[in-house]
Design brief:
By secondary structure, the protein is α/β, with parallel strands linked by helices. Helices cover 42% and strands 21% of the residues. The chain folds into three domains: 91 residues, no CATH class; 239 residues, P-loop containing nucleotide triphosphate hydrolases (Rossmann fold), CATH 3.40.50.300; 81 residues, Arc Repressor Mutant, subunit A, CATH 1.10.10.10. A nine-stranded mixed β-sheet has the order 8-7-9-10-5-11-12-13-14, sandwiched between helices. A three-stranded antiparallel β-sheet has the order 4-3-6. It has a three-stranded antiparallel β-sheet with strand order 15-17-16. The model has no long low-confidence stretch (mean pLDDT 88).
């Protein structure tokens, strides 16, 4: 009655079968011991609660005197109390049990009359913010596409405190205040290669020596298990030593864990980097390679980065083309279609990459078509017809994507005319004109 489910035992000292309570626990969220409020009942309920500790059973004591006519639940309701009153008593017990969690939750609650401090945009492309304080920015791309050069341009832009006309490869940077620092951690290059990269970075920034604003570290000589620790402690040290950390770049976050497909390691790494960015009010740029197919970020680590980052930019270069493109894969604070796709290429005269404009919208679809055609072209060198099911399995093997994603690729390949269903059997696919041209071009280049 009163809206509660209850089981009545004859005595406070009755044996409560554990097996029965285990079954009840499967049905009900909470089990509550409600004994008489006299000394015997209080003592017995404490003993029963201790015995049933594995089930996390609650104990509720009614606010009654404990006399013969004022000790049980019927006496409680006889005083005019309602089911709602009893529920409030239970809530008080629950609040004590969850006191620590509720305290943490209170700190996370949005206070409407106290809006959070506005986060500054540190990196933007056109009008689209891609790197913001307290957030992660993912930068990815295949081997040799120019990721490291683009990252160097971002750092150079942050060092441009004098607002000199420097080439930041089409990207707008907020200069680092003189009392803050930029931290650059490289987990992939040797010390010699990193030194050369820093030299080119300084040349781009029109600086002749390393400024106090920039601190660069080569972490390849440290064991993987130590790298995240030194990044964490270094970030904290510089944060308190200076007035703050303007930007953090980690070139090669995959080398901070054992394997990019280790789900637990990946989740923990991205979660920690996200917390560090928030705690120290900085933007952390995370550089990660694409899969060999060039269609998605590597492993569970890539999936986690794409989920948590404010933006993910992919640096791509068409085969046999000297031009690299910065293409947005994800934009949280804006639109993918409204974000310019930056183009840059190597300039022999300047000895570094130069910005050469933005890619026109009409050029974007053919590039995607070429990427998808390149994915399946090796299969059609083996034979000219494939079933949808066979292609689905092969794409999953080659790209490390789920079945649903592979189906999406096949659907796009058909929509673009790269693959064509055979007459009378739409489950059998052959080559469309785009794929035939690609295979012919490859054949001619090899010849």
């Amino acid at each position: 009655s009163r809206g509660f489910s209850a089981i009545c035992f004859n005595s406070e000292t009755a044996h409560i079968p554990l097996q029965k309570l285990q079954k009840l626990k499967m049905r009900f969220r909470h089990l509550v011991l409600l004994f008489d409020s006299d000394e015997t009942g209080k003592r017995a309920s404490l003993e029963q609660q201790a015995q049933l500790a594995p089930l996390e059973v609650f104990r509720l004591v009614l606010p009654l005197s404990g006399t013969k006519k004022d000790k049980d639940i019927s006496d409680y309701f006889a005083q005019g109390k309602t089911g709602r009153d009893l529920l409030q008593l239970f809530y008080q017990t629950l609040s004590k049990h969850y006191e620590e969690s509720l305290s943490l939750l209170k700190n996370c609650e949005i206070q409407w009359d106290k809006p959070p401090q506005k986060q500054e945009t540190i990196i933007s492309i056109g009008r689209t913010p891609v790197g913001v304080q307290s957030s992660l920015l993912g930068i990815t791309g295949g081997e040799g596409t120019g990721k490291s050069h683009y990252v160097s341009a971002l750092i150079a832009g942050c060092l441009n405190s004098k607002n000199l006309p420097i080439d930041t490869l089409g990207t707008t940077l907020l200069p680092c205040p003189k009392d803050k620092v930029v931290l650059f951690f490289d987990t992939e290059q040797s010390q010699d290669q990193l030194y050369q990269n820093i030299s080119k970075l300084l040349k781009r920034a029109k600086l002749t020596s390393l400024p106090d604003l920039l601190h660069a570290f080569c972490l390849t000589q440290l064991p993987r298990r130590e790298r995240l620790k030194v990044i964490r402690e270094g970030l904290e040290s510089f944060y308190y030593q200076c007035a703050g950390v303007h930007l953090v770049v980690i070139d090669g976050i995959a080398d901070l864990i054992g394997a990019v497909n280790n789900e637990q390691e990946s989740v923990e790494l991205i979660e920690e980097l996200y917390l560090l960015a928030g705690n120290y009010k900085t933007c952390i740029v995370c550089v990660l390679h694409l899969t060999p197919s060039g269609l998605k970020l590597r492993g569970h680590l890539g999936s986690e980065l794409q989920r948590k980052a404010t933006a993910v930019l992919s640096i791509e270069r068409e085969k046999n083309s000297p031009i690299s493109a910065v293409k947005p894969m994800k934009i949280r604070n804006g639109s993918l279609s409204d974000t310019p796709q930056i183009l840059f290429r190597w300039n022999n005269e300047l000895g570094m990459h130069s910005y050469v404009g933005n890619q026109k919208n009409e050029d974007q679809k053919p590039n995607k078509a070429s990427t998808l055609a390149s994915l399946v072209s090796p299969l059609f060198k083996e034979r000219t017809l494939w079933t949808v099911q066979e292609l689905n399995i092969e794409i999953q093997k080659r790209t490390d994507v789920k079945e649903r994603t592979a189906k999406g690729y096949i659907r796009t390949l058909k929509e673009m005319g790269i693959l064509v269903p055979q007459e009378g059997n739409d489950q059998l696919l052959g080559m469309g004109s785009v794929l035939k041209e690609l295979l012919e071009d490859n054949k001619n280049s090899q010849g």
